[in-house]
Amino acid sequence: MTDSDALRAAAETMRAVRERCVWSQQITHRDLVPYLIEESHEVIDAVETGDRAELREELGDLLWQVLFHAAIAAQDPDDPFDIDDVAETLTEKMVRRHPHVFGDEVANTPEEVLVHWNAAKAAEKRTRTSVLDGVPRGMPALALAQKVLGRAARVGAGADVALAAHDAAEIGAAPESEEELGDLLLTLTATARANGWDAERALRERLRTLEDEVRTAEAG
């Protein structure tokens, strides 16, 4: 079976489930959100633990979520679209954003690739009025903070946070209120961004160490 045949079979399986499974028939886009979040985090966990078999399975579960949303969308009475429409839109966007691959532009470094990507994205999103438009508010707080700090830097905002990130004394100070704790977390996130670190991943990795310590203590 070719890759395209396998994807088509998965899409047809989803279509049959949507049409014939009583539970699946009642599910809406909104109902699926918790499952989408859970499956995304399970993919992340498989990537970070290096479990290849788990990664293959979890990527399949995540693909199922995409197929499920597309199957629901195909039944919308006012604005229907299916998985083929999703794939077509994706292909068109990726071709536009890679003019150095599919066009005459040249990019010899990752930085030059990013210039083309951002230019294409800006052209697509001309109706946006703020650098914060398009930032999903449902992101985990640390990841959201890192995203917002990056957008703020584009317009010269958040400079005080960036300066505080280099103040080791402030970073080490114990907060005396929840508001100060928020300031400290934002400062630490700015430190992560300044060093090219992923704040969300850093905390997840540290939590994995703590989980190992807990299990060792339970077994001891």
Automatic annotation (TrEMBL):
<dbReference type="GO" id="GO:0046052">
    <property type="term" value="P:UTP catabolic process"/>
</dbReference>
<dbReference type="GO" id="GO:0046047">
    <property type="term" value="P:TTP catabolic process"/>
</dbReference>
<dbReference type="GO" id="GO:0046076">
    <property type="term" value="P:dTTP catabolic process"/>
</dbReference>
<dbReference type="InterPro" id="IPR011551">
    <property type="entry name" value="NTP_PyrPHydrolase_MazG"/>
</dbReference>
<protein>
    <recommendedName>
        <fullName>NTP pyrophosphohydrolase MazG-like domain-containing protein</fullName>
    </recommendedName>
</protein>
<dbReference type="GO" id="GO:0046061">
    <property type="term" value="P:dATP catabolic process"/>
</dbReference>
<dbReference type="GO" id="GO:0046081">
    <property type="term" value="P:dUTP catabolic process"/>
</dbReference>
<dbReference type="InterPro" id="IPR004518">
    <property type="entry name" value="MazG-like_dom"/>
</dbReference>
<dbReference type="GO" id="GO:0047429">
    <property type="term" value="F:nucleoside triphosphate diphosphatase activity"/>
</dbReference>
<feature type="domain" description="NTP pyrophosphohydrolase MazG-like">
    <location>
        <begin position="28"/>
        <end position="102"/>
    </location>
</feature>
<dbReference type="Pfam" id="PF03819">
    <property type="entry name" value="MazG"/>
</dbReference>
<dbReference type="GO" id="GO:0006203">
    <property type="term" value="P:dGTP catabolic process"/>
</dbReference>
<dbReference type="InterPro" id="IPR048015">
    <property type="entry name" value="NTP-PPase_MazG-like_N"/>
</dbReference>
